[in-house]
Amino acid sequence: MKVLMKASQKVKPTVILFGYHDMGYAGLSALIKSGYNVVSVFTHKDSNNENVFFKSVTDLADKHKIPVFRPEDVNEPSWVIKINDLSPDYIITISYRHYLSNEIVKAAKFGAYNVHASLLPAHRGRSHLNWSIIKGDEESGITLHEINNIPDAGPIYAQTKVSISNDDTAHTLHRKITELASTLLPVWFTDLYEGNLTGLDQDESQASSYGLRRPEDGHIDWRSSANDIRNLVRALSFPWPGAFTDSEGKKLIIWKCNVLPSEQSFIPGTVISIAPLRIACGKDILEIDDFSLTKCPEPGYSRKITGSGIIVGMILR
After folding, report:
1. Which Pfam families is this protein grouped with (predicted)?
2. Residue at 7 is within a domain
3. What is the model's pTM?
4. Which of 205, 196, 299 is nearest to 244 (CA)?
5. Domain termination site, one of 194, 210, 226
6. pLDDT 10s digits, 167-209
């Protein structure tokens, strides 16, 4: 157990935010509402592809006239010096894509803290929302923890759960967690500088860690159960690149599907019917509700089987 040191309440505590995307936006909003003096924001360049559904931390910082920096390598010596010169009371990281060096973490007088979108110690690392659904978890959440020398392994100061429904996708779960963060972070950040939080060490026996997922990781293995494949589809559905299979050299992206229990025996990947499109799995059958051929801007863009080369009896790879 670790008791939190607190900043003086007579002046606004200073903080540097390292954040990106919706969660970073929620974090910056919360810091402002909680009365922090945000002396600078470190973020990444906004991507047109990602701004389909993410808010811009840069835009919010500009609105409040907060200096914004977007270094390629924040741990480069010149940036370490700059951050130490700012001498913040706190450092907060939220959805920032680079781990901070010890030299940066130590620059915060009262500690450096991360907001992580999972129920630590489960799902340390990257792509935690996607992995939560791939693994079939029934709940997720957000965790406020201290940053130490092991990523996502520091003492936990606050944590709240959110349920994952059987119909949730990574996008709907992302929205649930972002809405939760918007409500809770102003409270947590106030409690942080008022010294009302106590850190509890993580239970290493319950820890799990997963890496960053890449588009090619969405290739479906039809030997898996229909339920596991459906979880993969939910985890990678739009606006993520989608779970996919190969059909005679063409890419079939599956956006939505359901499991049909079956005792019949087929070679996994066998197309059982066209209308509706049903495919045999290692266990049970997958009925495809929404799909597209090749790369499409959104699900449902190209749902015609005609001309796709898909026929009953063929085996998808």
Report:
1. Formyl_trans_C (PF02911), Formyl_trans_N (PF00551)
2. no
3. 0.90
4. 299
5. 210
6. 999 999 999 999 999 999 999 999 999 999 999 999 999 999 9
